[in-house]
Amino acid sequence: MYHYANLRACSREGCRKAALHDAEVCAEHLDDPRAYRERLAEMVSRGELLRGANLEGAALAGVNLAGAKLTGANLEGANLEGANLDGADLYRALLTGANLRGAGLRGARCEQGVFGGATLDDAVCDDADFKRANFVGARAVKASFQRCAFYYSRPGSANFSAANLSGANIQRAIFRAADLRGADMTGTVGSANFDRAKR
Asked: Percentages helix, strand, coil for the chain, rounded to the nearest 5?
């Protein structure tokens, strides 16, 4: 039923979703989302490992998760608008459909992360590692990806219009059918696939 190890079912009767990390219920049935957000930030500040944590659909707007160890975590559909994820370890994390509008991911490790359908408008992701990451269908209008590593990433059909990718390593990245109109690609390094991309 669940894709992540050590998950428990939400304790609310009739709910088939998994409980959030360090909670008895899923995001939909949390009585106090703000208190949960603060508790999670506290865990991060103490350096606790959140490897494989289930945070699906969690309301985490504006939370400070700088340096969080979220390897393989499930953040699908989470609201991380304006959140601080600078230096976070999101290796192989699932962020499908997540709201990362205006979030900070400076220097974050996002290798093999899944950002399909996520919103990253105005996010600041400078110097982050997105090697082999999946951005298919993502929206990153006016986002900043300066000096990022996009080796073999898949931003196909993504909207990177007016984004700043200056100095990024795009070797073998697949921008097939992506919207790159107005994007700053000054000084990008490597050869990428721009088949049917709008430029």
From this structure: 10, 15, 75
Average pLDDT, the chain: 95
Q: Are 168 and 143 in contact (CB under 8 A)?
A: no
pLDDT tens-digit profile of 87-99? Answer: 999 999 999 999 9
Closest CA to 85 of 96, 99, 97, 77: 99
Q: Name residue 18's beta-bridge partners.
A: 9
Q: Which of 152, 158, 166 is nearest to 196 (CA)?
A: 158
Which residue segments constitute the domains of the chain, with CATH numbers given? 35-199 (2.160.20.80)
Q: Output the CA–CA distances (angstroms, integers) from residue 83 to 73, 74, 152, in the order listed.
A: 16, 16, 27
Judged by average pLDDT, the poorest of 3-7, 53-57, 128-132 is 3-7
- Does the pLDDT of residue 3 top 90, yes or no? no
The span from the CA of 56 to the CA of 11, in Å, is 16
CA distance 180 to 163: 8
Count Cβ neighbours within 10 Å for each residue of 83-102 and write b for 16 or more, e otherwise: bbbbbbbbbbbbbbbbbbbb
